């Protein structure tokens, strides 16, 4: 595959995984949790480096996943103590991210680990960091990891689709029929953390947040059915990734930033033109009723 093809494939895998997970984040009204986890994983990455003194390897992934789960646990704990959920997210997110920034500034030194890279990522470097796989040959490591994460996400969503659906729309009903709501919540947060971590190094925190929230928000404007929303959100994520790449080439700017920008353009188009909840359909409805 060409250099450009690997970049597009990697970004599309991010769009697919984040689009699917973002659907449940939006429906559970936990959109800002995506922002929190995508930033607090920085603490896990820095901590893993301080322990091992290596910038690559499975320990970085493990550290980031632990940080993501710690974020979810602390938010849930504060919320159980009576703190509003949005306030809980704000407190945990800013505190853990700040600790990560302080550790970078004071402990990491001259190592190539900085806040700018964490926020923006650098997807153009993805095709150069490869691993050799049987039958496939050399494959970018980030692309392979994202593919594995997508497979895991799809398996978990399909295997527990009924449970996800009930716990998302009516947690009380789910508890009354014996579904372990708290376990499903932490399983969901684990999937969000894994998806965020896998996307983090390649595309940075800004694009991860954009891909988790915006395609799902756009899909929500088009349908009221969960299955269709999942498919639309994933497709919107891929469309944003591909169109954002070519926008970046056109105006010669950050690829990840352009992909995040493309998600906003797609949401704006959906907000205006969606036949179900779009602005145009809202204005057309009274006119149609009056005409009848």
Automatic annotation (TrEMBL):
It comes from Sporosarcina saromensis. Pfam families: ABC-3 (PF00950). This is Metal ABC transporter permease. It is found in: Cell membrane. Its main location: membrane. It is a multi-pass membrane protein. The chain crosses the membrane at residues 6-27, 34-51, 57-75, 87-105, 142-161, 173-196, 202-222, 229-248, 254-273. It comes from the Bacteria. Keywords: Cell membrane, Membrane, Transmembrane, Transmembrane helix, Transport. Belongs to the ABC-3 integral membrane protein family. InterPro entries: ABC_BtuC-like, ABC_TroCD. The lineage of its organism: Bacteria, Bacillati, Bacillota, Bacilli, Bacillales.
